[in-house]
Design brief:
Oligomer: homodimer
Distance between the termini of chain A: 21 Å
Structural class of chain A: alpha+beta
Number of strands of chain A: 10
Largest sheet of chain A: 9 strands, antiparallel
Number of helices of chain A: 7
Shape of chain A: globular
Strand content of chain A: 15-25%
Chain lengths: 426, 426
């Protein structure tokens, strides 16, 4: 089976309330919802009732894979659950194995996103194994998206694809914050699966991994959970340091065009680059820190998320403002000062991260952190920001980058075609 | 702080559709929803549209902790996400430490279940640390429940509580399927937290662990995900072997009274016993097995879940029925034959399990399984069933019990009191 099924899925139903008012809704996967201008400052401590909280997750939402302006799972409003997994091509595999895998993964992804099994669960023959493992039978798609990435290693000498290497797909350089483990870094291929239903999410990853068993070996995985906020209101999510994270994330269509999607990039036009970092957080140490110090480290208030120079979350930070002591109100080494586009020549990246937990570590402490995923049309933009953050960020006392990966995300496939098909065009 | 806050939470709002028609709705936490008689046979492979699928998760649902007929998180319709964690009392702690911990945990659980932080996120004093870690600010309870259990070790000589030991709380005996690791077994205290929002779920566990840091050490944890099916329709969930699991689970009020809740049990009256098993599944090996063999192992069809002697999921299995070859249609060593109450002197237990994944194992295989949790008024009922299953179950080729724990679940607290308070009564 080396060609994708030509089964265009039903048009996705995107409930109106999922569309983000402040952005121009793309024809693609709905509009970005992180850090939108109408996000509310919900606070449980204040006891205020927040209309955006009083919502429900619609499990019937489906997103289409084929014939979209953008690949799925990037501008898509963040679902509550995510699994990121990378794979290496097995020894001895050749270009047609990769080609077949991408074709099969594409067809299966379209089926999964349409809430369909990828083949028979209960075959008619007594001698047959199931094509689909079955645990998602009867479940809705719950906004499932599959995003497939190509690692730099695919363009080495193994597959004769060196001439097709995306122009900016070279491994990330060493960065000041790196504390990387080989066991949680790299990979020839990446799969990002997101859904509002964890069982649907795991079923998708499992079945994609299973159908690829003849071609790839698993490398590493992180299971992320919903830092998206209650309901589909999608107020700014919070990370496990308890702070809003994403207030100044990309939300305008113009920024997507300028900073996320590739233009004039040959076969990669319409695609992007995916940076993944597994960032361990020493949450027990963090929790012992004074909140006033935490706020200095972030440059924002903890409850409402306002910049220390402002009153409301979406007030623009005033990095030049000084206090009575003549010192900057927002420390130049604070997280928001270092990451701000004003202080980085305008550079922006789209962050689409999830929290994760690995349970309890060897010291008996809670083992948790951030599955950082960013999308940008130039990996150097991430490198620029991370060089600054890794060198100067006050947060570095509490976090550690333990995993890393860079992948090229091809443009969305046309019906009857498959993701990355352009690699194999003569 | 040794007494719980006297803050009775608002009465929980239980949407009508969460109530299970076939059972008598208890005053407590809604009625059981697993394996109900109106559960539908949703099948994605059939392409049928299933009305129960077209549903949404209402994130505003809250359950009360105080003044209930039953402890929370047992009969409660299974939420999509669960974290189970156990703790050991630290060396040198005394009875009043345990007493204070149970009081604080009770008060905090009530706050969390009412979608409130357990204290200030952003204290007024610059010198203060936060009482609540903040990442659930603005989020709904999403049906959060906290269930606290007492391990056998609490009743050894350390705390002078030997006289209060629940009558049947002795460590589980060795069982034929055991492959237990000390690192995933036992514990002085257990915490089961369930919610439809993973961030709310993790926030609750984290804050309960954090406030207990002066008293306990973490021991082991498993993060489970929603084997409950789409929406609140709550058709029978599926495990990661792809089969429906829970078709014959307890659902009648009479069965709860007979098999789950303790009667005439002194201070434990109205409580129950919690058995927890971490069951590793070799899902990659399972996936390579013929479906016809899988069905023989379970004794049921894979898609619809019908017993091999019937046509529909809820048909009663006919264990005596023979095929043309004179052999039983449902093998006596099949999972449903060994576990059936008809073959176990009528014994039933309430199963409330979740799937889990630990990512990728040392061999590069998907590492996943079942967080098995059962509630019964006599742990010997679990032992009886597991002795049979562990010795004869055809499933044993594919599963391994790697973790185990037994805990007593005290009755629900009255307002102004706390869970396990009866332990300290003179």
């Amino acid at each position: 089976m080396s060609a994708p099924q030509d089964s265009a899925p039903e048009a996705g139903s995107v409930p109106r309330r999922r569309l983000f008012q402040g952005a121009v809704g793309g024809a693609a996967a709905g509009a970005l919802a992180v850090g939108g201008a109408w996000a509310v400052e919900g606070s449980r401590s204040s006891g205020m009732s927040d209309p955006a909280d009083k919502d429900a997750i619609d499990l019937t939402t489906q997103y289409p894979l084929y014939d979209q302006a953008e690949p799925a799972g990037i501008r898509t409003p963040p679902q509550r659950y995510a699994i990121f997994m990378t794979f290496d091509m097995s020894a001895g595999t050749v270009a047609t194995d990769l080609q077949s895998l991408l074709a099969r993964w594409t067809a299966a992804s379209a089926q999964l996103m349409a809430a369909q099994p990828i083949g028979q669960v209960q075959p008619t023959s007594d001698m047959a194994v199931g094509r689909d493992t079955g645990e998602a039978l009867g479940l809705d798609a719950a906004s499932l998206t599959v995003t497939i990435g190509l690692g730099p290693g695919l363009f080495d000498t193994r597959f004769g694809l060196a001439g097709k290497r995306p122009a900016l797909l070279t491994p990330l350089p060493a960065l000041p914050s790196d504390n990387l483990s080989a066991g949680t870094s790299g990979g020839d291929l990446s799969v990002q699966v997101c859904s509002d239903d964890p069982q649907v999410c795991y079923h998708a990853v499992r079945n994609l991994a299973r159908m690829a068993r003849d071609t790839v070996q698993t490398r590493w995985t992180v299971m992320g959970f919903g830092r998206a906020s209650a309901g589909q209101g999608q107020q700014t999510p919070r990370n496990l340091l308890g702070f809003k994270d994403g207030t100044r994330n990309i939300s305008e269509a113009a920024d997507f065009a300028t900073y996320v999607w590739l233009r004039d990039a040959g076969w990669m036009t319409g695609g992007t680059y995916q940076v993944v970092r597994k960032i361990e957080m020493n949450i027990e140490t963090w929790d012992a820190d004074r909140v006033s110090d935490q706020e200095k480290i972030f440059g924002r208030g903890k409850s409402a998320g306002e910049p220390l120079t402002g009153n409301k979350e979406f007030d623009t930070p005033q990095f030049a403002a000084q206090g009575k002591d003549g010192k900057p109100v927002i420390a130049p080494t604070s997280h928001i000062a270092l990451a701000a586009h004003e202080n980085n020549g305008g550079v922006k990246i789209l962050r689409r991260s999830y929290n994760y937990t690995d349970g309890i570590n060897e010291f008996g402490q809670l083992d948790a952190g951030l599955l950082f995923i960013s999308y940008q049309n130039n990996p150097a933009h991430f490198v620029q920001l991370q060089r600054k953050l890794g060198a100067g960020d006050l947060l570095n006392e509490y976090i550690k980058h333990v995993g890393s990966g860079l992948f090229a995300i091809p443009p969305a496939p046309k019906a009857g075609h498959y993701i990355g098909e352009q690699l194999f065009a003569r």
